[in-house]
Amino acid sequence: MLGRRSVRRRPTAFRSVTGGVVIASQRTGDALFLPATAAAVWDLIEDRADEDAIALSLQAQFPDVDPTEIRRSVTEILGVLDDEGLLEGDPT
User: Fold this and answer.
1) Can you list the domains of the chain with their CATH numbers?
2) What's the pLDDT tens digit per position in 60-73?
3) Which residues, in sequence order, are bridge partners of residue 32?
4) 27-41: pLDDT as tens digits
5) Most CB contacts within 10 A, which of 17, 25, 73, 77?
6) What is the spatial distance between Cα 79 and Cα 60, in angstroms, rounded to a whole number?
7) How large is the average pLDDT for residues 44-72?
8) How far apart, in whole angstroms, are the C-alpha atoms of residue 67 and residue 12?
9) Residue 35 and residue 20 in contact, taking contact as beta carbons nearer than 8 Å
10) What is the reported pTM?
11) How many CB atoms lie within 10 A of CB 79?
């Protein structure tokens, strides 16, 4: 799945809070709290980054974390966001 571009579904209500971000699920309307690492992925999606670019950016931010773990986390976080209806594929 790495390499797939993801973009935020518009419109999506969200707010940065201490320790992460709260997003309104498109699927249920419920609030979804994303802790700091997941919030960083959310921020990178705004730049239309693909999974590889997101993982590389996080590796630069967290050099002590195993790159394999970062890539696994990015894939998992994007899966959760997609399941909640918060992502759409890159139209290009």
Assistant:
1) 7-84 (1.10.10)
2) 999 999 999 999 99
3) 23
4) 888 999 999 989 999
5) 77
6) 22
7) 90
8) 30
9) yes
10) 0.80
11) 12
